[in-house]
Design goal:
Layout lengths: L8 H10 L1 E5 L5 H10 L1 E6 L4 H8 L4 H6 L3 E4 L2 E2 L13 E5 L4 H7 L24 E8 L1 H14 L1 E4 H9 L3 H4 L4 E4 L2 E3 L1 H11 L2 E6 L3
Parallel strand pairs: 1-10, 5-6
Antiparallel strand pairs: 1-8, 2-6, 3-4, 3-5, 7-10, 8-9
Helix pairs in contact: 2-6, 7-9
Length: 212
């Protein structure tokens, strides 16, 4: 099922051409920026692959990390039992997490209490799913966010301008007082210029980080 709020290829391609926000943060600011992945960002993918192929081949995540450290896999908010059989479709929401606490966490793990989640386990929709370019929403939680968030931000993720303005608006002055260069495409921006632009832009923004 395609998430109605997921942007299309035309939207993210427009961001590539009109608004690439590049941040150059100090190392200690990166974990704070990685929380953007917890809220949910959009990435371009090749559809038709399995979830494992998406993670290992397209995203370049170490297969051992996928096997040992990612304990919970969701597609469209349903836990996935077999990442080799779950196919990625345009508009999907994919969420990844390390171990979650308690009985709920045990039920959500692929090797956990599957009998507790039989009614909510992800089932592929079937039908033709030939490979093509698409857009999915990606969410990372807890240790997975800490481990992988920077690599996704370095690659670049897509976020709606209003969402990004609200997200940055929650950061206090202690964050903005730090030295962090911001650029829209090749033009350096101040904090005020960034907020003024996000307020009126109305489209998708590609957010990426660079480390000096």
């Amino acid at each position: 099922m395609k998430n109605e709020t997921t942007p299309g290829l035309a939207d993210v391609r427009a961001a590539d051409e009109t608004f690439i926000l590049t941040l150059t943060p100090e190392a200690y600011l990166v974990p704070r920026l990685c929380t953007l992945l917890q809220k949910g960002c959009y990435v371009r993918v090749r559809t038709g692959s399995s979830l494992r192929e998406l993670l290992c081949n397209q995203f370049g995540i170490d297969p051992e990390y996928v096997r040992k450290d990612i304990k919970v896999f969701f597609i469209n908010y349903s836990p996935v039992d077999n990442i080799d059989e779950a196919a990625i479709r345009d508009g999907a929401t994919v969420a990844l997490s390390a171990s979650m606490p308690g009985v709920v966490g045990a039920a959500m793990r692929g090797d956990g209490l599957s009998w507790m989640r039989s009614s909510i386990t992800y089932h592929d929709e079937g039908g033709d799913i030939s490979g093509s370019e698409g857009v999915i929403q990606l969410k990372l939680f807890n240790q997975v966010m800490a481990d992988l968030g920077e690599s996704f931000l370095a690659r670049g993720v897509y976020v709606r301008s209003k969402f990004l303005m609200d997200y940055f608006g929650r950061f206090g002055e202690d964050f903005w007082e730090k030295e962090m260069q911001m650029r829209k495409n090749s033009e350096t921006m101040s904090k005020q210029q960034l907020f003024d632009t996000l307020k009126t832009f109305g489209g998708m923004v590609k957010v990426r980080i660079e480390r000096e």
